[in-house]
Amino acid sequence: MRNKLIIGNWKMHGSVVENAALIEQLIQGVPSLDANTEIGVCPCAIHIPQISELLAGHDRIDIGAQNVNEHTSGAFTGEISAAMLREFPVKYVLLGHSERRTLFGETDEMIAAKFVAVANEQMTPVLCIGESLQQREQNKTESVLLSQLESVLKVTGKESFSKAVIAYEPIWAIGTGKTATPEQAQAVHQVLRHWLATHLGEVSQRMQILYGGSVKPDNAKTLFSQNDIDGGLIGGASLNAEAFLGICEAAQ
Ligand code: PEP
User: Fold this and answer.
1) Is 174 in the pocket of ligand 1 (CB under 6 A)?
2) 214-236 confidence digits (pLDDT tens)
3) How far is the CA of 228 from the centre of ligand 1 (A)?
4) 52 inside domain
5) Which CATH number is 186's domain given?
6) At what angle do helices 141-156 and 108-120 cross, to 10 degrees?
7) What distances in angstroms separate CA 119 from CA 91, 104, 112, one per listed residue?
8) Residue 79 among the catalytic residues
9) Does the first or last residue of the chain, that is N or C, have fewer Cβ atoms within 10 Å of its Cβ?
10) Full domain range(s) for residue 70
């Protein structure tokens, strides 16, 4: 039995004042949720120290980072290493989000290197994969997703890969208000679980596969009730405490 996991990706939103209000509301709402529902929030990197302080002593909400540099240190102006993230109580690191792939040119090779850097610092990679609308229409969904997984697995090796969280995020559903139907999402998650089982064996049954793409409180329950959907990666709705808590509630 896998726990449900709900991770909020705040993207480039928030401010010191807004974050304090949002975290306060989450802290108040979380105790009413089932203890088996795992929750994470990914603020902007500059806000991680603030969120770490706000969440000190509150072990129900974990912290994630939205990105990391693959190098350990050096002349990489503006970048943040995994070891730097690890100085704070960062549990998750999002990798390969479609915005990083498309807007910032991240390749599968870079994502694999970042994965290794995160795993070396004992944090949990949240590996995001997804197909574009065009790829879906050309029936390439499965080959695109499996090649995104394969390119990372061949670099990281099985043991490290099996400790990751996978997030299936169809690009056409991110921030668009369009959601994959529960059946569409489950069909993909089933393919992903099968691929994980083939390559990693028994441990695949314990790996969490999240769905992301316009998840809201009113569509979360049917998505999360699918056999192979173990929670969600939430963008827009994670900036509103009531909506985010509603989604967490739907996971129970
Ligand atoms: C995301 O960016 O990971 C995401 C799923 O965004 P949204 O929920 O806004 O579609």
Assistant:
1) yes
2) 999 999 999 999 999 999 999 99
3) 19
4) no
5) 3.20.20.70
6) 40
7) 11, 22, 11
8) no
9) N
10) 62-238
The CB-based long-range contact list for 153-157 (8 Å cut-off, 24+ gap) reads: 153/199, 154/112, 155/109, 155/112, 155/113, 155/115, 155/116, 156/112, 156/115, 156/116, 156/119
Is 49 inside any structural domain? no
Counting from 1 in the atom list of ligand 1, the atom nearest the Cα of 128 is 3
Gap from CA of 97 to ligand 1 centroid (Å): 10
Residue closest via CA to ligand 1's atom 2 equals 235
Q: Which of 38, 99, 121, 169 is catalytic?
A: 169
**Could you tell me the two tokens for 83?**
């070891």
Point out the ligand 1 atom lying closest to the alpha carbon of residue 176. Answer: 10
Three-state secondary structure call for residue 95: strand
End-to-end CA distance of the chain: 13
pLDDT for 210:
98
> What pLDDT, on a 0 to 100 scale, did the predictor assign at position 179?
87
Does 5 fall in a domain? no
Instruction: Report the atom number in ligand 1 closest to the C-alpha of 215.
Output: 8
The CA 23 to ligand 1 mean position distance, Å, reads 19
This prediction has a pTM of 0.97
d(CA 65, CA 90): 7
236 lines ligand 1 (CB under 6 A): yes
Task: Give the residue-averaged pLDDT of 116-135.
Answer: 97
User: What pLDDT sits at residue 1?
Assistant: 80
Total domains present in the chain: 1
Nearest in space to 232 (alpha carbons), one of 56, 198, 241, 246: 246
Read off the DSSP letter of residue 32.
G
For the question of residue 249 being annotated catalytic, the response is: no
